[in-house]
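User: My instructor asked us to take a sequence, write out its structure as tokens, and then describe one feature of it. I'm not sure where to start. Here is the sequence I was given:
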Amino acid sequence: MAEAWLNHICGNVFEAQSAGLEAGILNPLVVEAMKEVGIDISHKKTQWVSDLMKSGERFHYVIAVCDEASAERCPIFPGALEKLHWSFPDPSSLTGTAEEKLTRIRVIRDAIKEKIESWCAQKCSSATNFDLD
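Assistant: Let's start with the prediction itself. The structure tokens for your sequence are:
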């Protein structure tokens, strides 16, 4: 969700890539929640963080959006100018019915959007024609 929001909100300034600590599949409820706000992530493939590290690509920012416990497992990206940690619950760890999970995923989705809007506004305040909508 964070990658999609960042690319949607300030993709004219940043190009976000997402990767997990473990290989996985897209959560269909996350796909549904993002589709509700007009962002289709169904075509995305999951990446493993070690694949990004092996690519040799340099990143200006590395933003971990996992919970506090998982953040300790996050690898160090050489050359990253800034490493940030934004703690959000992992949608895959939610329990309950599909509707209960979707309700909580919507809350997470909206919280991630708010955080990214705020961060982009701060980082891009000098960019011209910057629009958060």
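For the description part of your assignment, you could build on this observation: The chain has one domain: 2-120. Try explaining in your own words what that tells you about the chain.
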